[in-house]
Each structure stands twice: as C-alpha cells, then as structure tokens.
Amino acid sequence: xxxxxxxxxxxxxxxxxxxxxxxxxHILKTRDMSHTGAYLLTRDEIGLELADQVTIQSIxxxxxxxxxxxxxxxxxxxxxxxxxxx
Length: 86
Known about the structure:
Elements: E1 10-11, E2 15-20, E3 24-33, E4 37-41, E5 53-58, E6 67-75, E7 78-83
C-alpha cells in the first residue's frame, strides 16, 4: 500500500476523549500523532465509518482544545483521523 501521509508521525501515547454523534463518547489512547492527524487505539468496534466526523480532546492537559477531525482509516487496532483545522 502506498504511503499517503504528508507529515512525519511521532509515537506518542496520550489519553483522549473522542466524541461522535451516534457512537457517543469514548476514552481512548493515541498510538501516534503528527501535525495533521492522529491514530487512536480501540479495543472494541465502536461503530465508526470512513469520513465520519468526530471531536477529540486531550484528557491529560487541563483546558485542552476540542479538535474536530475526520476518520480517514479504520483497521483492527483502531482508526486514524485527519484534523479539520481552519
């Protein structure tokens, strides 16, 4: 499979709150991050599909911003999101 990422990923474990309109709120861990997105680890299927929009927020930082993101990849370990930044 061809590499589509434009930014370097950095391995980084952090707790995040992910919210989706129908899948609800889930506390997850990141596997890696870049300037344009992140990969979130999941233990179970949580009902997300490609192109769904979610919000993510660090639970490890007080007053962390809420970031809107789009799901760009789903696999057996979790899913990747691209930040929807202005």
